[in-house]
């Protein structure tokens, strides 16, 4: 069964993955019940994927199964055990897999209109207002959110309604740290790694620092899987934190979730020693905002539009200047679009936040939300100033940057040296730094740090003016043609921090 829903009036179609199915158990659900139901539909309980925060389990078809697990579940639905509340299809979105939770997200055209009348025939457990006439509605465990959205969608009172999909995102593949360490003189030779911050020289950030230093009043929100605030290069910069996954202020990452810590270093780390990392926006503040997590090493990231929208609103309402988003290809969402729209227009006292988003790491069109108007969509370039593709000359043939008319700028996205979770956790079990951070994930915080440095030079600029400066100051590099000043792989060119700061000073 495929599924469709509306996002800003446009139809989004999702194709079912026949080899996966989501099961919502009634808690407490003992392991024996889970194993029995898995066996009854031909799934291997040892290969299940647990989503504990959502109380869902994903069952996978064995490779030699005579029928897909989703078909088997549909066939067995009449004999469903008492401990199973409902099952739900899993949909494909590139490499991301999504399934509907017990929640729906909705916005009213008139915030003064009571939402209770709309839900009078719906079996729900709670209604949580999110401000601006928007709500998160938690349904009873056995209620189908997909059918509920289709049932309520025709209401003329609604600005939007959509399922709050769980997104299971594949983590980017990274360089082997042991191989890098061997090439640089063995494990622990972190002084040698420091020379690999080639992006500082390539983007002329070191020259920009002679004109302006990062201002602590300029805040970069890093929306990711958490930041290690114990790191010596970050602990003075992180001034606030929020965890949209657990709804509290403790955003510290799981030991294996090093992505956010790596991003934070490139954006605004301040080196604590000669071996340390200098972020492009070093001296600015960091707001650590956790929107995703994985439940085990090399596991998939788990997030949802509801968490993302809540985090975005928290950022601009708590004084963020720049929002750095090193993730992409999530399910399209009106709630997320609305939250980013508020950040772009209401943030910074009406001047607007600068929103920076990774283009994505698959060589094809950019995904959501990097395709939204007003954001800075960042593609990746190589150390040789070429577009990053699977065939580019950089030794990383397993990935290429996404591209398209939405790309505004490119930045180095190969082998960036950055901060890692302290101790044996994170990407590098032998140190507190990682020499091979890559992807548009690593290019994005470089641009976010540059935006913060631009605002440090001229805090009166609007968010839209900063975006324009980043485009106008970029270098037209690479063996690609620029039509009317831009290219779908490189945008308006590769980031030049010095030129951006110079434009800001004279604006």
TrEMBL record:
The keyword Electron transport does not apply. The active site is at residues 224, 259, 441. Residues 218-493 form the Peptidase S8/S53 domain. Pfam families: Peptidase_S8. GO terms for biological process: proteolysis. Signal peptide: none annotated. One of its GO terms (molecular function) is serine-type endopeptidase activity. It comes from the Bacteria. Coiled coil: none annotated. Gene3D superfamilies: Peptidase S8/S53 domain (3.40.50.200). Keywords: Hydrolase, Protease, Serine protease. Belongs to the peptidase S8 family. PANTHER family: CEREVISIN-RELATED, PEPTIDASE S8. This is Subtilase family protein. It comes from Massilia timonae. The lineage of its organism: Bacteria, Pseudomonadati, Pseudomonadota, Betaproteobacteria, Burkholderiales.
């Amino acid at each position: 069964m495929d599924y469709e829903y509306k996002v800003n009036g446009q139809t989004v179609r999702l194709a079912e993955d026949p080899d996966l199915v989501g099961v919502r158990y009634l808690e407490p659900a003992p392991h024996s019940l889970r194993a029995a139901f898995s066996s009854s539909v031909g799934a291997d309980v040892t290969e299940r994927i647990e989503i504990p925060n959502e109380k869902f389990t994903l069952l996978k078809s064995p490779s030699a199964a005579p029928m897909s697990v989703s078909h088997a579940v549909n066939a067995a639905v009449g004999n469903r055990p008492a401990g199973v509340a409902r099952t739900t299809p899993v949909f494909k979105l590139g490499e991301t897999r999504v399934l509907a939770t017990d929640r729906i997200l909705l916005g009213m055209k008139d915030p003064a209109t009571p939402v209770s009348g709309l839900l009078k025939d719906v079996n729900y457990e709670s209604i949580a207002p999110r401000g601006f006439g928007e709500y998160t509605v938690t349904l009873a465990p056995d209620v189908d959110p997909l059918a509920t959205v289709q049932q309520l969608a025709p209401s003329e009172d609604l600005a939007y309604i959509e399922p709050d999909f769980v997104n299971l995102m594949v983590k980017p593949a990274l360089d082997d740290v042991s191989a890098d360490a061997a090439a640089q003189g063995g494990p622990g030779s972190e002084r040698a790694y420091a020379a690999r911050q080639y992006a500082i020289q390539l983007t002329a950030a070191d020259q920009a620092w002679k004109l302006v230093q990062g201002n602590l009043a300029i805040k970069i929100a890093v929306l990711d899987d958490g930041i290690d605030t114990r790191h010596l290069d970050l602990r003075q910069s992180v001034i606030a934190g929020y965890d949209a996954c657990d709804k509290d202020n403790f955003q510290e990452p799981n030991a294996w979730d090093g992505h956010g810590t790596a991003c934070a270093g490139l954006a605004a780390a301040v080196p604590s020693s000669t071996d340390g990392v200098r972020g492009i926006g070093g001296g600015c503040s960091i707001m650590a905002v956790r929107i995703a997590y994985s439940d085990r090493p090399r596991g998939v990231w788990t997030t949802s539009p509801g968490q993302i929208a809540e985090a975005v609103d928290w950022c601009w309402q708590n004084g963020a200047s720049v929002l750095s988003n090193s993730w992409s290809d999530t399910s399209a969402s009106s709630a997320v679009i609305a939250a980013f729209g508020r950040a772009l227009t209401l943030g910074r006292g009406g001047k607007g936040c600068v929103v920076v988003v990774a283009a994505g790491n698959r060589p094809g069109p950019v995904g959501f939300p990097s395709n939204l108007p007003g954001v800075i969509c960042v593609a990746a370039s190589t150390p040789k100033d070429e577009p990053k593709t699977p065939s580019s000359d950089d030794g990383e043939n397993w990935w290429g940057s996404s591209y398209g008319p939405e790309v505004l700028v490119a930045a180095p996205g190969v082998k960036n040296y950055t901060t890692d979770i302290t101790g044996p956790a994170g990407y590098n079990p032998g140190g507190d730094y990682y020499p091979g951070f890559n992807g548009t994930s690593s290019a994005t915080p470089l641009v976010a740090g540059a935006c913060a440095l631009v605002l440090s030079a001229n805090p009166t600029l609007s968010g839209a003016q900063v975006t324009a400066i980043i485009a106008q100051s970029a270098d037209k590099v690479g063996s690609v043609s620029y039509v009317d000043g831009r290219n779908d792989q490189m945008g308006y060119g590769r980031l030049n921090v010095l030129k951006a700061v110079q434009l800001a000073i004279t604006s």
